[in-house]
Amino acid sequence: MLSYVIEGKNKIEGEVKASGSKNAALPIIATAILNPEPVTFYNIPDIEDTRITLKILKLLGCKVIMNSGKITISSKEMHNKIIPKDLMHKLRSTVVLAGAILGRFKEATFSYPGGCNIGKRPIDLHLKAFKDLGVEIEEKEDYIHCKAKKELIGTKIKLGFPSVGATENIILASVYCKGVTHILNAAKEPEIQDLAKCLNKMGAKVYGAGTSRITICGVKKLHKTDYKIMTDRIETGTLLCAAAITNGRVKIENANPENLLNVLYKLKEIGCKISITKNSIFLTAPKILKSTNIETMPYPGFPTDMQPIIGAVLTKAKGTSIIKENIFENRFKYALDLKKMGANIIFKEENAIEITGESKLKGETVSSADLRGGAALVLAGLSASGKTRVENAEYILRGYENLEKKLKKLGANIILEKVV
Ligand code: EPZ
User: Fold this and answer.
1) Start-to-end Cα distance in the chain
2) 337 near 366, Cβ under 8 Å?
3) Reduced to 3 states, what is the DSSP secondary structure of residue 56?
4) How much is the pTM?
5) pLDDT tens per residue, the chain (420 residues)?
6) CATH, range 22-228
7) Where are the domains of the chain?
8) To test the ligand 1 pocket, which listed residue (327, 329, 398) has its Cβ within 8 A of the most ligand atoms?
9) Is CATH 3.65.10.10 the right assignment for the domain spanning 2-19+231-418?
10) Atom 42, ligand 1: which residue's CA is nearest?
11) Which atom of ligand 1 is nearest to the CA of 123?
12) Minimal-distance CA residue to ligand 1 atom 25
């Protein structure tokens, strides 16, 4: 079992580079299935989620060459259209591979990715969209068999919720469709814009990414391409919050402030001084943080992935803060461990918590229940007096590349401990 062990109270100070975006890397890796020509991606983070995704591509028959953040993939010889059940369950975001397989081969077989610790996370919107594209779906022995009669037919698809994964899956499945697909009420996240930029560089025709209406004109083929993916905006926000919770100051050297405006706005509201350039963010924390209220919303609203992270910060803020989680039904588990560390948190109706600061957190042994909740506990440990052990660190390693190295460089007393 892996744990982060932190001696708290050190200020986070200095300059650091964030890694490539986990949530852009996963759908962009899926484009290699669509494109039979060799593709090379740069800035792919070396984390568990990307490793599992690349392992699945190899199982499907793709040639994958990894060389630190540079990944070259050729799917010319790809033969297998079935995503293994055990790997689907390990990583829910593999569902976007289904859209790519369907787009390339007009058939795909996969299983329900299963929920995770933050919610049920169904895929009904994905399956309905595939049906709209003329795909026949049959469920047998907990596998989902998708097959188009001849080809996928472009159509108008209105999403009941601006689902990030469903939007990505429809784009991937529609790249070679007959005619044109319009997605209404599409998700607008920056990772979707990065996916569209990558596909268009390959020769696809995806218009309107970043707005709620995306149009995909079917093309006949894609060509050899290389592409550098965007910086991880949630890791950027996490590193900024590490400085905020320790009264520190940090410069993220390769961040795009455009992708985090709502988070920067909230950090300013609680008293942080923020200065930005086109590709960097500099934050100086105040001596005493002010409380605020947070409502998670689809982009460009406050991102649900930053909810646990800012929740840890707000335990240090003077006054009462309310956090309302509107995207996932079970994303407050980390708050139980923050309470164990001395935070004053009340669970409210309607999927909300009330945090009253400013708490003096004390080091404890706590446990990650999910990726971002675990990161929130690491930040709480940076600020707590004494030693904090964050167990089940495997969750955190899924989405943060070399987190302890980055925090150590910024002054933290943190190690990643392996207990056999
Ligand atoms: C993506 O998940 C991200 N993951 C999540 O990041 C992120 O929290 C989420 O988008 C929202 O921004 C990746 O990109 C790999 P959704 P996704 O479909 O696509 C419901 C992290 O920590 N829904 O936008 O699964 C769903 O249950 C992760 O990096 C349906 O009801 O999110 C949820 O309540 C966590 N039916 C809401 O929509 C569907 O068919 C948002 O889900 C699909 C989704």
Assistant:
1) 6
2) yes
3) helix
4) 0.97
5) 999 999 999 999 999 999 999 999 999 999 999 999 999 999 999 999 999 999 999 999 999 999 888 999 999 999 889 998 888 888 888 899 999 999 999 999 999 886 678 998 899 999 999 999 999 999 998 899 999 988 999 999 999 999 999 999 999 999 999 999 999 999 999 999 999 999 999 999 999 999 999 999 999 999 999 999 999 999 999 999 999 999 999 999 999 999 999 999 999 999 999 999 999 999 999 999 999 999 999 999 999 999 999 999 999 999 999 999 999 999 999 999 999 999 999 999 989 999 999 999 999 999 999 999 999 999 999 999 999 999 999 999 999 999 999 999 999 999 999 987
6) 3.65.10.10
7) 2-19+231-418, 22-228
8) 327
9) yes
10) 163
11) 40
12) 165
